[in-house]
Amino acid sequence: MMKVSGLAFVVGASAASVKEQANPLGKVLELMGELTAKVNAEGEAEAAAFKEYFEWCDDVNKNTQFEIKSAKSRKEKLEAKISELSGNIQADSSKIDDLASEISANTKDVEAATAIRSKEEKEFTAAEKELAEGVDTLVVLSAFLQKNPQKTQLHWRR
Question: 158: helix, coil or strand?
C-alpha cells in the first residue's frame, strides 16, 4: 500500500510537470494519476474488507474455541455422571440379586409352613371329628340317662 501511494506521488508530480510540456503525454500521466487514485481507493476498500473479514474470523475462532471448551467440560461432567450411574447400576444389581435370594428363601419357608399347616389342619380335623363324635356320644348318653335315671344307678353298681 505504501509503494502504491509513493508511486502515485511520483506519477502525480511527474504528471504536473509533463502536463505543461506535452498535451498527449500529459493526458496519459493524468489518466495514470486517476488510475493510481482508483487503485488506492480500491486497495483501501479491500484493506477495510480484509480487516473486517479478519475480525470476523477472529470472532468465529474465539466463539468456536469457547464452544469446544464448554463441550469438553460438559463431556467430562457427563462422563462422570455416566460413571456414577454405572456404579449405581452395579450396586442396584447386587441388591436385586440379594433380594431375589431372599425371595427364594422366603418362598421355600412359606412352602414349608404351608405344608406344616396342611398337616396340622388334617390332624386338627381328625381330632375335631373324634371329639365331635365323643360329644355326640355324650349328648346321646346324657339324654338317655336323663330319661332313665334308674338304669344309671343300677348300671353303676355292678
Answer: coil
- Residue pair 8/33 in contact (Cβ under 8 Å)? The answer is yes
- Tell me which residue of 32, 43, 42, 41 sits closest to 9, measured CA to CA: 32
CB 7 within 8 A of CB 32: no
For 72-93, the pLDDT digits (tens) are 999 999 999 999 999 999 999 9
Report field, pTM of the whole predicted structure over 0.70: no
All residues at 6 or more sequence positions from 30 whose CB lies less than 8 Å from its CB, including other chains:
15, 19
Do the Cβ atoms of 19 and 26 come closer than 8 Å?
A: yes
Angle in degrees, CA 47, 49, 51, rounded to 5: 65
